[in-house]
Write a structure and sequence with these properties.
By secondary structure, the protein is an alpha+beta fold. It is 28% helix and 15% strand. It has a six-stranded mixed β-sheet with strand order 16-15-17-14-18-19, sandwiched between helices. Strands 1, 2, 3, 7 and 13 form a five-stranded antiparallel β-sheet that branches. The protein is globular and about 70 Å long. The termini are far apart.
């Protein structure tokens, strides 16, 4: 029987959507050139992300300059080969330090960087899509050969049908883009993947031994990825901000942990005093001085935007599980777009954010409640239809809002708490270890309580009853779950503390926090079930777990909690955890493969406080136990930042 042909994606709707976003931004009052620049910088994520970008860059001196972004095409291996490469990156960095390969991630460069005016981005996307669709599927085998010299180690693509196919595709793309006035130059040298270069000679043997652990014949799903960067990134060294810092002088930059600093190459030492650098904030475009010990060098690609991914080989050609690597961290003030190691098109809902490998316009629709179903209060379980699991990130946390110094700022020498800001908690629980126990186990802010209550109210208004609540042991998660229940007007459901819902342990730089017991949480006034025994205790987890272990752990916990909910009578369940919980607890349950560490790190930066993912059980007797990711049945929560205010500014000029 002939195979059913793949249904072509609706490219016209993608272009129309970008056009609609531009028109809406202009209608909102943004100048067309700023709107086009913002849509390109955010990977055409939508109106909200573009508007946030414009507002963040309002003091950027380059905001109104018509400077074309720089684009590049990479071939990227997912699956077994990709996992081995990610592990190599982590191991080589740990054993030998940073070499030239760490400036990027594993890839095959297909062309030189080329420029595209912001207004021509829709034509660029259309041209690429047309060529990839016309080329069809790539040959099954991409044969790679290991190569090592005194200063370079890599994998080279052998002469084969796959190599000819890739080169033909790139040449066709260059010809197609030339019709729109874009000059793209295909990579002229033999196609290859760099594993290590620019390293000291005495590291050759160690690096070669590490690189030989990579099996060039390992199964892989190859993808074509389009990236772009601000031209300033290409001429700068990139440093990641490690700590928040409030400026004390006009020439100092405000530092935020989710930002990057761009330092012109060769100009790092230029500063007013020793230990201070002059650089440009990636998130705002503003230039100023900042302390050098608040940043660390990182890959330039951390500040790139990934626009689109096209699959070059069939998904079923890659055998075995995708084992994610160890990497990074997350957290963000607004939708971040620079570290996009994921299949990202246009995200209009959390479902689109978490779905990978599907058309951006193919999202499942929210199933409407059945006629006559009440909108508030308790509902009999047999009236609910398919079971729902709502997975929610915790609300705004104190240490991110006020910085890690909030402990010294708010507690005196007697461990007495003093509320220094209206957004700080009115009270905090009493901890056995005193104020130091809040380090790593922070409470939520007063605004966080509002966020969580609004989420609960939205669920109640949409007639979504919750019958079981499981929370990470983190205080911020338990407080969020409690506030959601209060927003729903439900004082009967008790929160079950499940340690297995805690975040990826690789992000616990200072070790695993000291959590409060269920009894202590209940004593502080939270609706906690003191009889529930956690399925997986924190002591059972590996403090050095890799992303693979995190996904396995989350999947195991999800299956257990789903079974636990069914054993207790069925109904809907609420998980309250961390940004990564939305994906880690739902991805494999819904049939997806674990993401790589870089993909997870990129993803969590796009999950806001109280961000929600929803999975629904399939109503089919033949598919019992099957779940699907669906669009959350209530709107997302967005609000503007409110920076710290110093009344002494009014004295200036007096």
């Amino acid at each position: 029987m002939a195979a059913v042909p793949t249904k072509p994606r609706n490219r016209a709707s993608t272009i129309k959507k970008a056009s609609d976003a531009l028109a809406l931004l202009v209608e909102m009052g943004f100048p067309p050139n700023r709107a086009e620049k913002a849509l390109a910088a955010t990977g055409e994520q939508g109106v909200q992300a573009a508007a946030d970008w414009i507002l963040a860059h309002v003091f950027d001196p380059d905001l109104d300059k018509r400077t074309a972004r720089e684009y590049v095409l990479y071939a990227y291996p997912c699956g077994g080969l990709g996992n081995q490469l990610e592990e190599l990156w982590a191991e080589s960095l740990a054993q030998c330090g940073r070499n030239g390969a760490h400036k990027s991630f594993p890839h095959i460069t297909l062309c030189q960087f080329f420029s595209c005016e912001d207004g021509k981005l829709p034509q660029l996307m259309r041209g690429l899509s047309n060529v990839v669709q016309a080329m069809g599927e790539a040959p099954e085998k991409f044969a790679l050969t290991f190569y090592s010299s005194g200063s370079y180690i890599g994998l080279f693509l052998e002469d084969q049908p796959a190599t000819s196919w890739v080169k033909t595709m790139v040449q066709n793309i260059a010809a197609e883009l030339g019709k729109f006035g874009m000059k793209m130059e295909p990579h002229k040298k033999q196609l290859h993947m760099t594993l290590a270069y620019q390293f000291h000679g005495d590291q050759q043997k160690t690096l070669e031994a590490l690189c030989r652990k990579v099996d060039p014949a390992a199964p892989a799903k190859w993808e074509l990825r389009l990236y772009s960067r601000d031209p300033r990134v290409g001429t700068s060294e990139v440093y990641r901000v490690l700590y928040n810092l409030t400026p004390r002088n006009d020439d100092e930059l405000e530092l935020n942990e989710d930002d990057y600093m761009l330092l012109p190459v060769g100009d790092k030492a230029s500063a007013e005093s020793e230990g201070w650098y002059i650089g440009t904030s990636f998130m705002t475009g503003v230039t100023g001085v900042f302390p050098g010990n608040y940043v660390e060098k990182c890959a330039e690609t951390d500040c790139w935007t990934q626009h689109r991914t096209w699959k070059l080989t069939r998904e079923e050609q890659a055998a075995g599980p995708e084992v994610p690597p160890t990497i990074g961290r997350g957290g963000s003030r607004y939708k971040r777009v620079q570290k996009k190691e994921m299949d990202q098109k246009t995200f209009d809902s959390p479902e689109g954010l978490l779905s990978q490998g599907e058309d951006a316009h193919g999202y499942a629709q929210v199933q409407k409640r059945k006629a006559g179903q009440p909108t508030k209060g308790k509902v009999a379980l047999d009236m609910l239809g398919p079971r729902l699991v709502v997975i929610c990130r915790h609300a705004e946390r104190v240490d991110i809002t006020f910085g890690h110094q909030w402990l010294q700022y708010s507690f005196d020498k007697d461990n007495s708490y003093h509320r220094r800001n209206l957004n700080m908690p009115k009270t905090v629980p009493i901890r056995k270890g005193g104020a130091s126990d809040f380090k790593g186990d922070t409470p939520i802010t007063e605004m966080g309580i509002v966020q969580a209550r609004l989420t609960g109210e939205a669920m109640s208004e949409q007639g979504i009853p919750i019958h079981h609540v499981f929370s990470s042991p983190s205080l911020r998660c338990v407080q969020t779950a409690d506030a959601i229940l209060k927003g729903m007007g439900d004082s009967t459901i008790k929160i079950k503390i499940e340690h297995g819902l805690f975040e990826w342990l690789a992000w616990c730089r200072d070790g695993i926090p000291k959590f409060m017991t269920s009894e202590e949480l209940a004593a502080s006034g939270l609706q906690v079930d003191t009889t529930y025994k956690t399925f997986m205790h924190i002591s059972q987890m590996n403090a050095k777990e890799k992303a693979e272990d995190y996904y396995k752990r989350s999947h195991k916990i999800s299956l257990h909690l789903l079974a636990e909910g069914k054993k207790l009578g069925g109904g809907n369940t609420l998980f309250v955890g961390h940004a990564g919980t939305l994906d880690a607890s739902s991805r494999q349950v819904t049939g997806g493969m674990p993401r790589t560490g870089q993909e997870l790190t990129s993803l969590v930066q796009k999950v806001p406080y109280c961000g929600v993912a929803t999975i629904e059980e399939v109503e089919d007797d033949k598919k019992q136990g099957t779940w699907q990711l669906v669009c959350p049945p209530f709107p997302t929560l967005t609000h503007a930042p409110n920076p710290r205010y110093d009344w002494r500014a009014l004295r200036q000029g007096m």
